[in-house]
């Protein structure tokens, strides 16, 4: 499969890049995508939720009334969960939500996401992008040239570029990542995927190992 390499104004450069069918043309595996997205979202959770249990409440442990003969239910200390201000029963505790996935399965998920983008005609290959200084208006002009200002976009760079990253950071629908940080969730979340020309071969090498 071949795609034309586009300039930053959307015009063709006259060059074409070949996309591997083993990466961009597979039959998508929806379950692999589900697991990879589930892991990505689980890893975003802080897991710092915590409520105080009975032994952590500050208060007296003295029995507040005699056991029987009061006409009411028997009761222990003021820290009992049945009283206001008492400890919570089975409350949340800090925990780690992350879980392991096999490398091969994650590769299948990314290949599936890329194949979906090709099927939806929402993948384009661009000349390598770089800015002299971090300016949001420069990135807006870049998106405007491609008619993508109002769409969710993901730009994949061959390597980290601080100026491009900072230029896009204030735009809520624009996302920039290096090719080493590509993940299934962000691939599928974008309406349009933009691969820099230099990113294609690196991405194919990463997903074919």
Summary tags:
about 210 residues; alpha/beta; six-stranded mixed β-sheet; 6 strands
Can you give me a brief rundown of this structure?
This protein is α/β, with parallel strands linked by helices. It has 7 helices and 6 strands, in the order ββαααβαβαβαβα. It has 2 domains: 1-44 and 97-206, Ribosomal Protein L4, Chain: A, CATH 3.40.1370; 47-95, no CATH class.
Helix and strand arrangement:
Elements: E1 2-6, E2 12-18, H1 21-24, H2 30-44, H3 103-119, E3 123-126, H4 136-145, E4 153-157, H5 162-168, E5 174-178, H6 184-189, E6 192-196, H7 197-207
Parallel strand pairs: 1-3, 3-6, 4-5, 4-6
Antiparallel strand pairs: 1-2
Tell me, briefly, the overall form. elongated
Q: Class of the largest domain, according to the CATH hierarchy? A: Alpha Beta
- Strand portion: 5-15%
The rounded Rg comes to 27 Å
How far is the first residue's CA from the last residue's CA?
21 Å
Give me the strand/helix succession: EEHHHEHEHEHEH
Share of residues in helices: 25-40%
The CATH architecture classification of the largest domain is 3-Layer(aba) Sandwich
What spatial order of strands do you see in the largest sheet? 2-1-3-6-4-5
Secondary structure category: alpha/beta
Mean pLDDT: 92
């Amino acid at each position: 499969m071949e795609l034309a390499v586009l300039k930053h104004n959307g015009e063709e450069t006259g060059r074409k890049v070949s996309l591997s069918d083993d990466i961009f043309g597979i039959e998508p595996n929806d379950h692999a995508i589900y697991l990879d997205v589930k892991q990505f979202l689980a890893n975003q959770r802080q897991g710092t939720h915590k409520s105080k249990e009975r032994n952590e409440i500050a208060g007296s442990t003295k029995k507040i009334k005699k056991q029987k003969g009061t006409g009411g239910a028997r009761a222990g200390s003021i820290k009992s969960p049945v009283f206001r201000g008492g400890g919570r029963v089975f409350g949340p505790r800090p925990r780690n939500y992350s879980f392991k996935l096999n490398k091969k399965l994650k590769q299948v998920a990314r290949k599936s996401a890329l194949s979906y983008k090709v099927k939806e005609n929402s993948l384009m290959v661009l000349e390598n992008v770089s800015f002299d200084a971090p300016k949001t208006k420069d990135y807006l002009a870049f998106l405007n040239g491609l008619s993508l200002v109002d769409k969710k976009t993901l730009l994949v760079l061959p390597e980290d570029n601080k100026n491009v990253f900072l230029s896009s950071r204030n735009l809520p629908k624009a996302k920039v990542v290096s090719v080493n940080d590509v993940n299934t969730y962000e691939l599928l979340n974008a309406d349009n995927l933009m691969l820099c020309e230099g990113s294609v071969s690196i991405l194919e090498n990463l997903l074919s190992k």
